Amino acid sequence: MPDNNAQTPEQNPPQKGRGTRVSIGQPPKRSAVSSFILTFLIMALFWVLFSGKFDLFHISLGIVSCLIVSALNHRFLFASGVRPRLFIHCVRFVGYIPWLFYQIFLANLHVLYLVFHPRLLDLIDPKIIQFNSMLKEDVPRTTFANSITLTPGTITVHVSVMGKFSVHCIDDKSGELLPGIMEERIEKVFKS
Question: Which residues contact 192 (CB under 8 A, 6 or more apart)?
């Protein structure tokens, strides 16, 4: 015989603060320690590069500041923990930067040509192009979107969760190479 007094989960929702604890998005302890150490090292490196003060007082303040910032923010910088291939990705990314600077230089020359051309209004044809990216993770997609925006003549307007990019281009030539070589290079930087 069915129990008519039994309540369904909709009728008796779990009370706040009761039930099992579920840890969502927190890396394991070992990964948390490694992300803290790596965050501290990155903060300390930038502090040394930008401070220019190397006496005991300023170095101790820098260490304390880096410790506080690292303690509060290491979960944000490395949300999924420190991955084993992180160092390889960083080295590849450093190799990508000169190529990106070269592309920025070329795009600057193109925009300069457009600005000083006598038929400026005939050459500029602003439009938004859309394409699907083959990049599957957030960091490569963000790197790609920022690389597009850093290149004069193009601005990333929107990136969907599924990887569909909307990019504003000042003319046809600025957008003809998208996604193209830039996306392929970023994929090589972040491939496993």
Answer: 85
Same domain for 92 and 155?
A: yes
Q: Tell me, yes or no, if the pTM score tops 0.90.
A: no
Q: Using one digit for the tens of pLDDT, what is the confidence trace for 91-104? A: 888 889 999 999 99
Q: Which domain holds residue 35?
A: 12-82
Phi-psi region of 170 (alpha: psi -120 to 50; beta: other; left: phi over 0): alpha
Measure the CA–CA gap between 3 and 6, rounded to whole angstroms.
6
**Cα dihedral value 133, 137, 142, 145, nearest 10:** 0
How would residue 75 be classed by pLDDT, with cut points 50, 70 and 90? confident
* CA 132 vs CA 65, 80, 167: distances in Å: 42, 25, 11
Question: What does the block give as tokens for 160?
Answer: 């969907």
